[in-house]
Specification:
384 residues; acyltransferase; amino-acid biosynthesis; 8-stranded mixed β-sheet; AB_hydrolase_fold; 2 domains; homoserine O-succinyltransferase activity; Rna Polymerase Sigma Factor, Chain: A
């Protein structure tokens, strides 16, 4: 049984100052909540999403088949993050394309659709916007903040921007900043989008076009990096979609026939699906936020100094085959936190799935998160 989910919207009239020096006029955030907020409002857990996810973290929409939230295997009644115990909040980030104010909305300052003029947003800006939402909900302190990948960066940033408002941080398959290789993958994906003739400099809405070709390629690049080589080999190997007859290879190599290997077919399917629902400007905005995140930058590159502001307890989880956000990056965060004598739990899960492992069912992974939230719950009972 899945619990039902209901999307909600919160409007904010006050401008939001951004790190870039710009500010965002009146805006709205889409969010969902699961479970019940206790009397002293101490059992709230904020979930931060990654690149192409949203506020729909768990549960299903009534009457809609296949509408499970993206972390529904993790969050719900009796699950690792148990909504019988915790009040869980999922928020869609500003600039995204799933309900919160983004490039496809009207700029209240000009009366025109933002398009490419939507301001640059950073991880820190998202955290500030999330904090404002919590203010309206009357939640001063979070029992925990949790996220994977880019969501993990937000969880880490919460502990630095609002150290007195977070008791625990769960940072999964994440990093304190992106490697040059990661930034390079993001840049190739962005170039695919901006060079699509249907992009129109980001103002494609008024041209009635969608840069689907660029989005497809961006998604294909991303998808390759989220999977491990082992998983790809196991799933597809070098299988051809249709077996070649003798003497056909020459004509295949020089023909315009597109798909032959199953991996090609799979990537195209993923790319096509993505291009139908994801916004091109959002892709540019969110990958930029990923690239810019680097809390150590203002501390001369010292992560230990940067993380000195964090006071909460931490659980960090990494996956052995994740080469996009490798265990080495999680260990850097663990070391920097231990340098500051922080309370840190760390699990390195031997899972075959690559970066996508943070979204999948792995008994050890789910068990680690479950036992950590058991201890969070116990600490709530002690202070109650």
């Amino acid at each position: 049984m899945h619990m039902n989910a209901t999307p909600q919207t919160m409007h904010f009239a006050d401008r939001l100052p951004l790190q870039s020096g710009a500010s965002l006029g009146a805006y709205h955030l889409s969010y969902e909540t699961y479970g019940t907020l206790n009397a002293d409002k101490s059992n709230a857990v904020l979930i931060c999403h990654a690149l192409n996810a949203s506020h729909h973290v768990a549960g299903v929409y009534e009457g809609q088949a296949k509408s499970q939230g993206w972390w529904d295997n993790m969050i719900g009644p009796g699950k690792s993050l148990d909504t019988n115990r915790f009040f869980v909040i999922g928020v869609n980030n500003l600039g995204s394309c799933f309900g919160s104010t983004g490039p496809m909305h009207t700029n209240p300052d000009t009366g025109k659709v933002y398009g490419a003029d939507f301001p640059v947003v950073t991880v820190e800006d998202w955290v500030n916007a999330q904090a404002r939402l919590l203010d309206v909900l009357g939640i001063q302190t979070l029992a925990a903040v949790m996220g994977g990948s880019l969501g993990g960066m937000q969880a880490l940033s919460w502990t630095l921007q609002y150290p007195d408002r977070v008791k625990h941080a769960v940072v999964v398959a994440s990093a304190p900043n992106l490697t040059a290789e990661n930034i390079a993958f993001n840049e190739v994906a962005r170039r695919a989008i901006v060079t699509d003739p249907d992009f129109h400099g980001g103002h494609f809405y008024e041209h009635g076009t969608i840069p689907k070709r660029g989005l497809r390629i961006a998604r294909m690049i991303g998808h390759i990096t989220y999977l491990s080589d082992d998983v790809m080999n196991e799933k597809f190997g070098r299988q051809l979609k249709t077996a070649l007859k003798k003497g056909e290879l020459g004509s295949y190599l020089y023909s315009t026939q597109d798909v032959e290997f199953q991996i090609e077919s799979y990537l195209r399917y993923q790319g096509d699906k993505f291009a139908e629902y994801f916004d091109a400007n959002t892709y540019l905005l969110i990958t930029r936020a990923l690239d810019y995140f680097d809390p150590a930058r203002t501390y001369g590159g010292s992560l230990s100094q940067a993380l000195a502001r964090a006071t909460c307890k931490f659980l960090l989880v990494s996956f052995t085959t994740d080469w996009r956000f490798s265990p080495k990056r999680s260990r850097e965060m663990v070391k920097a936190l231990l340098d500051n004598k922080r309370d840190v739990s760390y699990a390195e899960i031997d899972a075959p799935h690559g970066h996508d492992a943070f979204l999948l069912d792995d008994a050890r992974y789910m068990g680690v998160v479950s036992s950590y939230f058991d201890s969070v719950h116990r600490s709530l009972e002690v202070t109650a």
